[in-house]
């Protein structure tokens, strides 16, 4: 599998993944695809959270009803953290939209960065003008991407 910005790497130094090294195809349609991926992921997280909520409701005979409302953020935290930090480097919605997430230096995103990115994403949806930062950056990164140190690109073609 090839990378958009891959180059020969030597042991002591790591190649820096720069947006200047990205071809135009790597960022083509990323904003639109991210929106659709977010919708798919939101539906999937809501389904998983609802399923967990229903199972716990029946298993405890309704005794933990007051503790169950925060399940959605908990599921979203682990859903994003586990899927983005996996070898596929994306959530199921991102994979369906042909997107991947990497650290700004081109490496795979660790679990904590991916999970924090999800938290920042949901917080930024509470303040929609923050999402306009994406229109001002050359690499189409939102404020939560910048804070988490990640970049979302199209998946590189497999040769």
Describe this structure in words.
There is one protein chain. The chain has 159 residues and is mainly α. The chain has helices at 24-27, 30-59, 71-84, 92-96, 111-124, 133-136, 143-148; strands at 99-103, 150-154. Helix 3 (71-84) packs across helix 5. It starts with 23 loop residues before the first helix and ends in a 5-residue tail after the last strand. Mean pLDDT is 83; it is low at 7-16.
**What distance lies between the first and last C-alpha atoms, to the nearest angstrom?**
7 Å
Radius of gyration: 18 Å
- Secondary-structure class: mainly alpha
- What is the count of DSSP helices, taking H or I runs of 4+ residues? 7
- State the low-pLDDT regions, or none: 7-16
Strand order of the largest sheet: 1-2
Order of helices and strands: HHHHEHHHE
Helix content: 40-55%
* Percentage of residues in DSSP E strands: 5-15%
Largest sheet at a glance?
2 strands, antiparallel
- Mean pLDDT across all residues, rounded? 83
Using the alpha-carbon principal axes, give the shape: elongated
How many domains comprise the coordinates?
1
Number of strands: 2
């Amino acid at each position: 599998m090839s990378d958009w910005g891959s180059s020969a790497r030597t042991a002591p130094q790591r190649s820096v993944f720069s947006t200047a090294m990205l071809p135009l195809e790597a960022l083509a349609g990323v904003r639109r695809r991210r929106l659709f991926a977010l919708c798919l992921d939101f539906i999937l997280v809501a389904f998983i959270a609802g399923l967990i909520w229903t199972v716990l409701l029946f298993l405890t005979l309704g005794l933990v009803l007051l503790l169950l409302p925060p399940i959605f953020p908990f599921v979203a935290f682990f859903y994003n953290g586990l899927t983005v930090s996996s070898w596929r480097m994306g959530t199921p919605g991102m994979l369906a939209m042909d997107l991947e997430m990497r650290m700004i230096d081109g490496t795979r995103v660790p679990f904590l960065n991916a999970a924090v990115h999800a938290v920042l994403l949901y917080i930024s949806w509470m303040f929609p003008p923050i999402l306009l930062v994406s229109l001002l950056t050359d690499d189409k990164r939102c404020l939560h991407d910048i804070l988490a140190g990640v970049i979302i690109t199209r998946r590189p073609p497999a040769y």
